[in-house]
Fold each of these.
Amino acid sequence: MTIKAKKILMAVTTDVVSDMRVQKVCHYLNSVSCDVLVIGRILPSTFKKELSFKVKLLKLPFSKGILFYFSYNLVFFFRGLFIKADLIVANDLDTLLPCYILSKLKKCKLVYDSHEYYTESAGLIGKPYKKKIWETIEKWIFPKLNQIITVNESIATIYENKYGKKVSIVRNIPEIFAPKKTKSKEALGINSNSKIILLQGGFIDNDRGGIELIQAMQYVTLDIQLVIIGAGQEIPKMKKLTSELNLTDRILFIPKIPSELLIQYTLNADLGISIDKPTNLNYKFSLPNKLFDYMRAEVPILISNLPELIKIHEKYPFGLILDSHDPTHIATKIESSLNNPNYIEWKSNLSKASKEYTWENELKILKEVYDKVL
């Protein structure tokens, strides 16, 4: 007798084609014979990519703000009413309300995957009314949830203390990907005679250290090139500043690109940058995905003093830590990193760390969660 595949309906407001966490979860669900449909949205930075699961990208009248969230939630809810689902997956708080209501109407299970500490995110700082809306939704639904996942220990501990619910930790570590051949710097359009520092991120927002990093390029030696890969609302400001400081020949901007191409740039980098500023609790307790991309490529990293980064650094020293975001200080740390006597040892530590921090290990926890609902 043929067993029918479980039907999974998933909601996400990020860019599905570049959200590797969503993709990895969907690949796992496919591997256990689930039929996955992801309902996301089209963004200006969305590129074409073949995926192993079904995706419906919505064209919405609004792209940001409360009207966007209202329109996405409304459209997702009414579409979801007519879609058969054995399990619904909500990615982040901005999709949880319609997913929760649909799970009750359809009498099916619900998994909540919180990618960040949403109610303390940068977009809600100084916006008490908007923050209150999301806090109200979270306080109403969170205590009723049974299967909850988040991305690191700090955020899990906050949720557990706040709501008394068990939260599983599945870190956003990339799958092992070894390209058959590493492209040369020339082939990628970067300076073959320069040391390359790399800032990568799917969405480079305010307070990610991008502005200060560009300002720091005034003070580093001329044989250093900065490559910035990603999209986000900070990018136009960063490009404008680059032009104003006459640094266009030393700073290369590349839009969001597929992961298979991104790894080529990472493998050619001499120093990875992860210098988010702890201006809100979401950033303070974050564990940036790019850390693990740099780790995979064994690229030493300059980091800001964030708890989740420091935990890994204390176990496997892999670079230097910023004491401030003053541009001259950042420049000094960049120079010190690239010319550090421990540089080779950092690369060795990253090699060791990459054997511990694997998606295969995270998958064991993910499997435990989904085994309870499939």
Amino acid sequence: MKEVNNMNPIKNKELFDLTKTRISDIFKNREYPWEVLEHISEFLEKTGESLGDDFAQIAPKVWAHKSAKIAPTASITGPCIIDEEAEVRHCAFVRGCAMIGKKCVVGNSTELKNVILFDNVQVPHYNYVGDSILGYKSHMGAGSITSNVKSDKKLVVIKDGDMRYETGRKKVGAFLGDNVEVGCGSVLNPGTVIGSGTNVYPLSSVRGVVPPHSIYKKASEVAQKR
């Protein structure tokens, strides 16, 4: 465990391949993912206004690549960018401030709010993702959600062993590194950070920092992949 902590697994450079999102500049000079959340809206608007002819503005502050597939029943509020070959399915609810990367899938009854989905992310069935960042090729199983407000409504503190990181924010969801798999029906509690390449068992309640390249069964059972 000491070796994993030395890797600084909760820093942006450890969690994400920053070449796999159109708004990679948002991460410049920001060490931790929660530092990015308050800037998503402004970056989406700035980026959207400079997109080329491959994109169309389909609603106020909503830009979609011409190859994207968007169901007529989806509800999308800007600012939002829907990138190349992304799919927004029946009854998806995008509440605003959402970067939906290339080849992403936003599925039936999935709700997004103030999020960055890196390229190839899948949130395909009944997911809630709020105030969160999901890394390249991460996947959330059916019914898994990010909880972004503590029950006592206090500011979110991220805990990694003896380390405590004050986010200064009331609303913080989860940060999934690249290639994370979250099992069906899991709840990622406020301030959860899951290192890249990790698998979370179905029906898990996850909080704090989960090391990269591990298998999470419950808080007392986290095994490193071989």
Amino acid sequence: MTDLDLDELRAELDDFAQPEKKGGRSAREERIIAGFEEIQRFVDQHGRAPQHGEGNDIFERLYAVRLDRLRSLEECRALLNPLDRQGLFTGDGAATVAVTEAIDDDELLAEMQGAAGATDITELRHVRSAAEKRAAEEIANRQKCEDFDTFKPLFKALERDLDTGVRITRQIRKDAGFLKTDIKQGEFFILGGQIAYVAEVGEWFKAPNGENDARLRVIYSNGTESDLLLRSLQRALYKDDASRRISEPSAGPLFSGESSEDDLASGTIYVLRSKSDHPIVVQHREVLHKIGVTGGDVERRIANAKLDPTFLLADVEIFATYKLSNINRTKLENLIHRIFDTARLNIEIKDRFGNPVIPREWFLVPFSVVDEAIERIKDGSIKSYKYDQQQARLIRIRT
């Protein structure tokens, strides 16, 4: 038997060697994960799952189609469930996108290319949707509100009420081609991206179709007004898929022990501490907290914390939880984060692909202050306080 030299031996062995599987995942699995992470970044930015509809941005619609496909494939669900920190495959998040949309090639091409001569995919020329055209026609009938200064305090107070949860926005009921809602003086609505205030309701009269109607004075948050008919406002609210009714301040406390058919979904505020060995975390562990809101189970939410940059790629400890109902979870979470924004942790870590990530939900705040803030959110008094980082406590705002 002839001895093989080292080069020949290496060549022989190379023929039998199996290619190493990088990171334990196939190229297809990595593409699926990368596509899902794009959807997760959209949800982080917008506070909701991507939605279908011709009035939405083309990229949001593409993400919505992609999410539907990921949900429909068992292979994808099994791969992505451990990474699903936003409940997109379970609970309320999974129901956000309900109807699969088929985007035809011509429409996609028109959106992506814009006008002839565009040289880069980022240079999209805006193509107006049908909803935007309807909004433009409605706006065209508005005029400048000469006494808008009279109404400014109302809009500012409304903004504070929405921020603190004293008021909430509710989807307008629509059925059988007409709007199932009354319109009264003093009410607020969201129409065409603007807040609309019904300042006056004129005398009632019979319309040609036999319905009761009235001339309105409607003031908009951009300083314009219109004198459209009540039935015209109803039709405009019906045609605008994003229209909302803004509740009265007396609609109930931020956290409610009772529920009704109009209640928003319940959930949980959670306060976590990290078990990371990162030097900054170790130094401030007693006052470093992650504060979030979820509609699902907190234990499930943190099950894969050590794989998720949001959790600093480390296990966490559940330090406190608060049950809630009749609340918009996204707005509540945004409110809590705004209160403690000055104490937000500034730290950069690497995800599993080596990309830099800056987690945004960790705050250097004593737990006692977090607990006080949540109690003040409950009773509505938080609007009179702000967090003072130097004193590490909530202080009353001077008015």
Amino acid sequence: MLEELRRITSTEPYKRYGGMRMKEVLISPWGSPDAKFVLEVSIDEEDGTVPQLWEIVCNDLAQTDGIPQYIIARTELKVFDNHPVLWQFDDEVFFNITSKSNNIPSLMGDLFIEHTKACGNWVDFHWLYRGLPETLETLRENQLAIPVQLKNACFQVLDKHRVEYRVNEIQENENGHHVLFFSNTGNWPDEENFKQAHIIAKGFSERRIG
């Protein structure tokens, strides 16, 4: 999946003086394909910097975040099929809180720390646990849902604070998404959320057009 572009952007000639420019973005939510991107990729060779035009096609587009018009030097293209940003599409654990907490701020602080360790903040903590403080205080009828990959981080904090809970269901969701990163690990590690530009889709294909 994007094998040639991934190879090119990982080479020394590209990293030395090469770079990328976004030339065109076409997103068609109800079309086929869902999105196309045209990139100009420059490679440092013996006779100068040589530009190439590449088209990237996205199938079953799920999310775009910060498609860059300006791409900083030495940015690589990387594709992951197992990354925390994809956990929002993966299996979920549904559970109830069945006892109150005596120190909700402390619990939420510990939970934020463990959550950040587990997913590098690629899953939005405040959105995921937006109703938890009220639930811990009032015990109103509740059912919470979190990605399966975050259940250990969550449940160990609830156990630490002696909050009781009941797991109701593990829901298997449709998987198979990939994420395309405009990656520059010298500045921002891929594992941590620094608002790096990325595209999530079921599939990506590449074609050199110039």
